[in-house]
Specification:
Elements: E1 2-10, E2 13-15, E3 21-23, H1 26-48, E4 51-59, E5 65-74
Antiparallel strand pairs: 1-2, 1-3, 1-4, 4-5
Length: 78
């Protein structure tokens, strides 16, 4: 078991995870990112319009970055 911290950048906004989550390892952290990032993005895209950029950084208990995921959304109109 280890504690992982999921920091989120939404455009110019940054929210650091101060509490973290206890997980069995990096694969569980990866699964968390794959589930959480699209759900967060979907919520914000509805509010923000046609373009959005999201980045989730995962840190371990020592503060070391262990992975990073990005998600972009762009809606173009004819």
């Amino acid at each position: 078991m280890g504690r992982y911290f999921f920091d989120l950048r939404d455009g110019d906004s940054f929210v650091a995870d101060e509490d973290g989550t206890e997980l069995d390892g990096a694969e569980d952290a990866r699964a968390q990112v794959r589930q959480a990032l699209p759900a967060i993005a979907a919520q914000h895209i509805r509010n923000d319009g046609d373009r959005a950029e999201f980045e989730m950084t995962v840190r371990d208990a020592s503060g070391q970055e262990v992975m990073r995921a990005t998600l972009s959304f762009a809606l173009t109109r004819d």
